[in-house]
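Thread title: Can someone regenerate the structure for this chain?

I was given the following input by a collaborator and told the matching structure tokens would be attached. They weren't. Posting the sequence so someone can regenerate them.
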Amino acid sequence: MTTVSAGRSRPAITLAVVLLAFATVPMSISGAAVALPGIGEDLHTAGAPLQWVMNAYNLTFASFMLVAGSAADLVGRRRAFATGSAVFAAGSLAAAVAPGVVLLDLARALSGIGAAGVFASGGAILATAFDGAARTRAFAALGSAAGVGLAVGPTLSGWLVGTLGWRATFGLHAALLAVALTGVGFVVESRAPHRPRLDATGALVFVAGLGLLVLGAVQGPQWGWTSPGVAALLAGGAGLLVLFVVLQSRSAAPVLDLTLVRNRRFFALCMVPVVSTFGFVTLLTYLPTYLVGASGFSAQRAGTVLLLMTAPVLLAPPLSGGLVNRGVSPRTLITLSLLMFAGGNAWLTVISPGGSLTAIAGPLLMTGLGAGVSFGVGDGAAMSLVEPEQAGMATGFLNTMRIGSEAIVIAVYGAVLVSLIETRVGSRELAAKVAAGDLSGGGSAVLADGFTHALRLALYGTAAVCAIGAVAIFAALAPPRRTTTTAPLPPEPARQPTKAA
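Best answer:
Regenerated them for you:
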């Protein structure tokens, strides 16, 4: 089968539109986190309702990703991208004018659904619009765009909150997506040639299953991991996902073609962002808290220190994409990036409350470079292993692994950190405050020591996970025996000339 396309392709405009939308999605995550204190003060809220400004977005973003990707293959990737961008913009605009925290949380949930449409269809658009070396460059640029959004989000949001108020942050996201929508008409439409009805039952079961699983992980630290509520959410989510697999094995038009999951190398590439969550995203989330709480940094200085990790994410993807085009194996680069995560996390155990910035600059640069090397290259390599008509489904599954793992791993990492701090301070309530950066409970030196001890153990643990992941993924990416004399990853599937719809 070939992908049926319609319209005149404008590759430069296509790339610009997708990159702008892609940069806005992570910007909406990292930027909203900076706006939380201002939101809490303005709307007179705190605790769980305030935290759901973040959680609602992450929950729907992860849960709808796979469904959005499969739908894009059927109804058209450009149409799905435009719909997702419009929903994202509408949710951001609603968040900017929300009079209370409940409506704000609902608006953020709507934005998450739109973000899923953008991420799932945007990658599929690039996979079908570009070939060969051009595709590698496009996905490298995609990695840089995600890095830009992640890195610029906190700084830009902090400036907006300080000058115009927190509502301007969400207004900016709506404006950026509106700009992207003006160029959608120049993006060529593409879809699978055969369009069976979407498996609505499978889609509903998957959204409910993953949603319950992520919700259980998010609520675990608050309700307690052994509480009946969390146990019910996790068990219910796992059970529904098992049912989803059974349904997909029997469906004539599955939301997820299980042959994708059984493709060893494709699945291994989908595990790369999961390992990256352990090695990179956890640091991006919890290191600023440590620097502010235990080391006494200002929020602004902590954000500046993080540039040591985020700057390489902006610069390395084009470099690694160029290396691939010059014959360097994606398998080699991906394995190297995961080993950099392991080395960077292990090296960062030199951190201490009174330590100098020079001591942690090396490990932060190594970790950021590891992220930059794999961003884009892994996605491009994964998409080279699937047929064009499955581009949306494959992108949806890949990003489901990425976003779902972030929501779950970050929650579990935080709970482990609190437990480790508790062994030093003797109180779980106090440990939770310390993990959040509040060391005002008396004996700040003792609390800082407990935080440092916990963080070092967590860093050693993540280093071990990344090292094991690097070895396992390197082995899984080995080419089949019948193609051992060819490149580590196969050439892209041959395509037939596109046909006007």
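Residues 391-425 form the longest helix (35 residues).
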